[in-house]
Amino acid sequence: LFRAVYLIFLKIILQIYLSQNLFNYFFRHFDKLLAKSDENLCIQIANNKYKFNYKSQNAKHQPVTLHIYNPIDFCFRIILDPKIGLGESFMKQDWDAEPSPKDLLTLMIRAKSKNNVAKLLAITSSFLNQKTNEHKKSLIVEKIVFWIFQAILNTVEGSATNIHQHYDLGNDMFQKFLDPTMTYSCAIFEQRITELLIYAKVSSNITEDVTNHFKYTLNSLKLEEGVYDKVIAIEMIEAVGHEFLPQFFNVISDRLKPDGIAFLQAIVCPDAYYERYRKSSDFIKKYIFPGGHMPSLNGIEKALPEKILKITEIEQINRNYAVTLDFWNLAWMEHEQEILKMGYPLEFHRKWQFYFALCSSLFEYDHIGTVHIKLQKCI
């Protein structure tokens, strides 16, 4: 109750302050973000009442227009939690972008890289924090969100609940954007599946962890030890969690024969900011994959049983996932009315639209990765 009253009071204060300073904030800080970029951005606030144009003479990409329909709510959500607020405000219809939300996200990623900004949304929060003394509040909110996230981490009991929230939404919904095979994973373009099988050296005696991962955990599978030539896990490791990675690889190692091979497809976080990532929450962790966790390649290597399981090959397929997500997003938007008629609210539809756009952008510019990892048991 206290937190709810506090947030209402904070929002009133922000409304008073932002009504006088909002537009200077947008113009000044988007100009700072784009200062060294080769981008064209138009920001239209409150139905074209206020407009900001940034045009680079060396623009290499198509112009993007950001429409902000509810500027007060937009700013409030972002200052409350910069990592999650942009997605939340999109869900609430505070903003949209042309040609698409993905175009805005990729513009911001490029501008960030060009301008060497520490955080994608730090500019949004820093100005308001300086003026409203909200810096401590932002840190507190970040910690609260992290503690909430810790409560849904993947214990044996919690894993099934977390997975249920995403994968058990109904096949009718998933059919609206997946291909006829219902493959909810990265497509490989310009590469045949047989090539992957050769890469993994797949033979007759295989166990695939991922097939029923939403019904079972590794502990409940009770697979026999030391009898499998190969173990294949496709995007299953993201449901394990940092603390349980050693246990995960110990189970794989125990199930493999000597000289057996494990093949993983994993979505990974770059090593450079893995420690920060694993100690915080974000839009994907909160709204899309509760309890989800991207390992890093270095984290995977450290979690392997020493001198027993080793990495022999790694293949990057990031761009394939970006294209896959673009296809899913296209189908998702084409079937919008059908999905709404199925009983899913517009906020849910926009949440998944933002999820597709955000992940595609991150894969396209290597801010997250997808890898094929081949492991071999040494004894």
From TrEMBL:
Signal peptide: none annotated. Keywords: Lipid metabolism, Methyltransferase, S-adenosyl-L-methionine, Transferase. This is Cyclopropane-fatty-acyl-phospholipid synthase. It comes from Syphacia muris. InterPro entries: CFA/CMAS, CMAS, SAM-dependent_MTases_sf. It comes from the Eukaryota. PANTHER family: CYCLOPROPANE-FATTY-ACYL-PHOSPHOLIPID SYNTHASE, FATTY ACID C-METHYL TRANSFERASE. One of its GO terms (molecular function) is methyltransferase activity. GO terms for biological process: lipid biosynthetic process; methylation. Belongs to the CFA/CMAS family. The keyword GTP-binding does not apply.
